Amino acid sequence: MKTIKSFSLIVVLAFLLSSCVVKSLHAFYTQDLLYFEQKFIGNWLDSENAHWKILPFTEVILKENQKTKPSELSKDELKLYNSYKAGYVIYFEKDSTKSTFLAMPFKINNQLFLDFTPIEDHEIDQTHNELYKMHLINTHSLAKLDMNANKEASIKWLDEDKFKALLDEDRIKIKHEKVGFGETILLTATSEELVKFIEKYMGSEDEDKWKTDVEVNLKRNE
Amino acid sequence: MNNQSDRSGKMTIHKTVIFNNLLLWICSFVFFLFLFTEDGQPKIIDFIYTGSFIATIIPPVLINFYILIPQLLKKERYLFYALAFILNILIFTQLNIWFFEHFIDYVFLDYYFISYHSNITLFTIFSVFLVITTLINFSMDWFYFNSKENRELKIKNQQMQSELTSLRSQINPHFLFNSLNVIYALALEKKETIKDAIVQLSDILRYVIYDSSTKHVTLKEEVTLLKNYIEFQQFRHQQNDNITFNCNIDDENYPIYPMLLLPLVENSFKYGIKGDIDHTFIHINLILKDKEFMFDIENNYSESLLETKEHSGLGLENIKKNLEIVYPKSHEFNISKTKDTFKVNLKIIQP
């Protein structure tokens, strides 16, 4: 219930992938690129037996607000509904840990991508107090989604080390900051610039461009 | 020779154009490099981007320099120039956008030019750069025009000086020739006054040789010269000649071009006194009042006794030429003749 309501107010740093994926202040997509893939909906298991429950955002927001139609939503809820109606809510459960993400699917040159943003779920996130949460800001990460028929899916995040190599070799000019003690790369480029980067990166002749330490291979678990 | 000189001139112009362009684009490269580098430490990608950016901004600047300005602006077709100027910016800004969105990826495969400028920023950069380069072009044009004008003025001045020198060199031997005739005449008559005449001639010559080489002398000095000359001439003529010289001057230090009046007096003595022995006269009136200078000289005149036109007109022609050079558009010079009289009137109004 509280998941969607608090999404626009509270920002949470993704604990799972914090040091290995490229993080951005802005979304990696523009509205015209959104592409809802129905086949991704459902329950999945990854190679480490973690559970991935993927629901349409529209369904979750209606359910959490106990409404049956979008027209019954309040003005703010409807605005949220329209902004993310092409997205998924992903409930991720591994061992005793749980987290929730908003994933926005989009297509560039016929390739599916997911823009991941962690969202707070009061029902599962009880470990941090409010003061702690006030200091957090959510970021976006980019993942490449490949689906094999209706039974298998692979999610590969854009690897931070690959991106860092581009910066270190002075082969990329993109707005970014290095933040924190570990000098974590935080992209500050606009969504349009990020899309431009993805297009160019897809055309790269580097065969290992999507090689990453953060990869999830899912199998349908019905 | 002329062809060689033309070719050499064109080569110099080409070299100047190439040098100016090189200087402009090197300075522009340095300027843009630091403009596009966020932390002030340019990296390889910044050099590549700046070089590519310069490549896209060179064509509109050159089109402006070598087509729009000479064909429209310098022909005072201001509206067409303004429209063409804006169109030039719009077209090449768009080409710059296309270049960095599509074509540069084919040239620099492994580089990612992502965060640079919005379309509005690009349009602004192109506009400001073209305006600045246009102003630089104007200032260079002004500089060359100014130096060319100065050069032409110097040449003109040199030509005037050389013309004046040439005219003076015609006066001096002319005057000397006449004076020697006077001395010769006195010697023939074995007159004792010949010594005084020689001293007076030497005073006149001293003035002619030394003082007249300055740009201006005072009217007092010029009047003294005329008086000396008249007294000198009277050695050879009868004392009862009707020669009058009236001066009415309110400023003795009034500056005047040296040796301006002497040829007129010489002329009167040569053609007036000589013309008619019995009724000779020369009336000279010199007036200076409120910076208005007037000089009238009238003498007796007889066409039958005049020498050929070639000789008689020499002094007057020299004066006319001198006046055109030293008092352009600020003098009046009139000659009037009757059957028996010849009169010259000179008026100078100096600001």
Short précis:
The complex is a heterodimer of chains A (222) and B (351). Chain A is of the alpha+beta class.
Q: What do these coordinates show?
A:
The complex is a heterodimer of chains A (222) and B (351). Chain A is α+β, with helices and mostly antiparallel strands. Helices cover 22% and strands 32% of the residues of chain A. In chain A, strands 2-3-4-5-6-7-8-12 form an 8-stranded antiparallel β-barrel. In chain A, a hairpin with a 3-residue loop joins strand 7 (140-148) and strand 8 (152-157). In chain B, the strands form 2 sheets. Chain B has a 5-stranded mixed beta sheet with strand order 3-5-6-8-7, with helices on one face. Chain B has a two-stranded antiparallel sheet with strand order 2-4. In chain B, helix 2 packs antiparallel against helix 3, helix 5 (194-209) packs antiparallel against helix 6 and helix 7 (262-273) packs antiparallel against helix 9 (314-326). Chains A and B meet through strand 9 and helix 6 of A and helix 2 and strand 1 of B.
Count interface residues per chain for the largest interface.
Answer: A-B, 16 and 15 residues
Widest β-sheet, arrangement of strands of chain B: 3-5-6-8-7
* Mean model confidence by pLDDT of chain B: 82
Approximate shape of chain A = globular
The secondary structure category of chain A is: alpha+beta
Distance between the termini of chain B: 45 Å
Helical proportion of chain A, percent range: 10-25%
Strand order, main sheet of chain A: write it out: 2-3-4-5-6-7-8-12
Count the beta strands of chain B: 8
